[in-house]
Amino acid sequence: MATQPIEELGHVERKLPAVLEIIRENIMKHGNPLALNGTEVSSWAKNMNLPKTGDLLFYTGGEYQLLPFIDSLVKTISVVDQGSKLFAMAIGVRNSLEKATGINAEKIYASVLSQDKERYQTINTKAARILQSLGYDLCYSGDEELYSGALLYELGYWEDLKEYAPRVQRVLQKSGAKTLVCLSPHAAEVLKFVYPKLGISLNIEIKTFVELVWEQRYKLEQASSAPTVVIHDSCRLARELHITEELRDILTAVGIEFREAERSKEWTTCCGGPSKLLFPQLSHTMAERRVKELQETGAELMLTSCPYCLSALEGALEKKDKNQAVDLIEFLYRGIAR
Amino acid sequence: MSNSQKSGKQEKVDLQKGFTDYTKELERARKDENIRTAISRAVKAYRATTDSTMARYPQTPELAAEVREIKTNAVAHQEELLKQAMESVARNHGKAFFAKDKHEALLIASEIIGTGKTVVKGKSMLGEELHLREYLEGVGNEVWETDLGEFILQLKKDRPMHILSPAIHVPREMVAEIFSTFFQKEVKPDIAEEVSVVREFMREKYFNADVGISGSNVVAADTGAFVIIENEGNVRLSTSAPPVHLLFVGIEKIVPTFQDAMKVAEVTWRYAQYPIPAYVSIITGPSKTGDIEKVTTYGAHGPKEFYVVFVDNGRSAMAADNDVKQALHCLRCGGCMYECPVFQVTAGTFGETYLGGIGVIWDAFVAGGLEQAAPGIYTCLRCGRCVERCGMQINVPAMVGELRNRLTSGQSMD
Lengths: 338, 414
Hints:
The complex is a heterodimer of chains A (about 350) and B (about 425). Chain A is an alpha/beta fold and about 350 residues long. Chain A contains 15 helices and 9 strands. Chain A has 2 domains: about 200 residues, no CATH class; about 120 residues, Rossmann fold, CATH 3.40.50. Chain B has 2 domains: about 120 residues, Fumarate Reductase Iron-sulfur Protein, Chain B, domain 2, CATH 1.10.1060; about 240 residues, Rossmann fold, CATH 3.40.50. Chain B is about 50% helix and about 15% strand. Chain B has 20 helices and 13 strands. Chain B is globular, with a radius of gyration of 21 Å. Chains A and B meet through β1, α1, α11 and α13 of A and β1, α2, α16, α19 and α20 of B.
C-alpha cells in the first residue's frame, strides 16, 4: 500500500449494472439515452415548418419520443438477468451490438408498435400547436436537438455531464432564443439548476410547457365535455420547480372540475418511474399503488405533465383502463382540435 | 477497506452481484403479504397521528428550524463538543470512552462486561451498527433485547424493518406463533396477551441482570446529560435495575447545552408522531445519595457504575465531508420512511443497517461502505418526499446523487 503513489490512492474502478453504462454511452455517443437518431427524434415536426432560430425555443429533448422504446427495453430487462451476457447484448441496443451476436437490437426497436410511436411523437406536435394557438412563435432545432443529459445527472455520471452539457449548450444557443420551453420537467430541472452548477450559463430563460400555458390560460377555449379529472403532480414539477397551482389554474380556466388525491402537490407520490431501468418490478408496483391513490378519487382521467409519469401510470393501468392516463398536452389539445 | 484494494488496483470491482442479491431481497419483500398489510396500516396511522399532533403543537416546525441550527453548529464543532461531553461524564462520576471504530467499541464493551453475564439491552440503532448483541453473545454472555419489537426479532432471528418499529412487518398471528414456541405454552394472537407474557418474562431479567445497555437520543455536552426517549418503560428498567449501566452513543448526538438537548428531544418525538412519549429519561451518572451525614455515596437504588462509549466509526469523516455532513442532522424519528414510496413496498430491505434513503447514506459511511451501499443508493427514486417530511430538511436526493457520482467516477471514501 505504502509504495503506491498518492494520487492512485482512493481511486477504484467499478463495474455497475450494464443498463447504466449503456444509457451513459448512448447519451455520450448519440445524444439520446436509447440512441434514437436526430431524424427519429424530430420526425414529428416534418410538416410544421418551424424555423431554426427565434426568440422562443421549443425543446422536446427527445423524451416523449423515447417512451415506447423504454417500455420494450424494460420488458427485456424484466425477463433477462442483468448480470448475464445475453442481457448486455440485448440492451446494447445500437451501440455495442455490432460486436454481439444472437439478439438483434433493430428487431427490439422494430417491435415497438407503430401506433405507440405515433402517439408519443404526436404529443410534441400537439404541444407546439397548443403554444402556437396561444400566440407563441416557436423555433426548433430539428434533427440537431440533443437530449438534456438529465439521466447522466440522475444516475451519477457527473463527469460525463460536464463533457456533454457544452454540446447541448451550443445547440440551444445556436437558436438565438431568449426563452426555452421544456416539455419534460426533468429537462427543465437540469437546464435550470444543474447546468449553472457545472459552470454553464445558457443565458436563456428556462420555462416549462405548463408555465407558458398558464400565462395565456385565458385564451384557452372552454372544454366541451367535462370529465372529472385528478392531477398527478410529477415530483420534479412539484418539488423542484414548485409548479403545482398552475396546473389547477389551467383546468379552472377551461372549466374543468378536478379532484385531489390523498397525496398531491408537494406531497405527491412518485410514479416509480425512476427505478424502471434497474428494478422494473418494484417500479411497476409503485406505479400501481399511485394509480390506486388516483383512482380512489373517483375521477375519470388522471392528468400529468411529465413523460415518465405518463408512461409509468399507463403501464400500471389495467388494459380496459389504459386511456385513463393522459398528458396535459393531449388533454388541452382536444380543446383546440375541435 | 474496499475489495479493490485487497485484489490490487488493476482489477475492476464488479458491483453486479451485489445488485443481483439485493434485487432478490427487494423482490421477496415486495411479494410479502405481511409487509404490505403491516406497512399500509402503519403509514395510515402515522399520517393521521402526525397530522393531529402537528395541529395540536403548531410551534413544532419553528422549533425544528431552531434544532437545525443547533445541529449544524454541533457538527461544525464535533471535536470540541466530544471533549466537553467526556469531561462532563467524568465530573459526574461516570467513565467515558472514545471508540474510533466498531472494533474499538466492541473491545471496550467486552472489557467492561466480560463474559458469563446477563445483559438487558434497550433498542439502539448504534447497537445494530456495531452488531452489539451478537458480539456479546459470541463472547459468552446472555443478552436480552428488552424492546418488544426487538425481542420479537431476536426470537425470530430477523432484522429490523423500521428504525422505530423494528418488527413492523410481523403481524400478531406470527408473534403468537413465535411466542408459543419460545415460552412453550399457547400464546393467543391477542396483542394484550402477547405484551403481557413478555412483561412477565422480562421482569426477572431486569433484576437479575449484571449490566443494562442503552443508547441515547441526544447528549448535552455542558452537563453530561443523556436523554433517552421511550414508551415501553424497558429503557427505564434496563438502565436503573442492574448495577451497571453501559451507554453507547454516536458522537453526532452531542449538542452544546442542556436546553439545546431538550429542543432536540421534543422535535425528535414530535416528528416520530408522538405528542409526548411515555418516558423521557435524563441520565447523568451513577445513582447516588447524600442522605447519611451528607456524604455522597455512589450506588444507591440505581446503578453503581455508569459507562459511556462515544462512537465515531465514520461520523467524523461525514462531518468533514461538505456534501454529506447534513446527514448527521438526522434525529432518527423515522418519519421519512413512512413517506418513502420504495419503503412502503419493501420496508427495511431498502437499506441495510440504517434504512430508507437517509439510511443508505449512513450505511455508506458507517456500516459496510460505499460499494456495499451501492444497490441501496441506486434504489432511491430521488423523488424528494422525504425532504418534505424531514424536520431537519435533510436533502437525501442531493446526497444520493453525490454518492452515485462517487461510485461512477471511482472515488473511494477510504
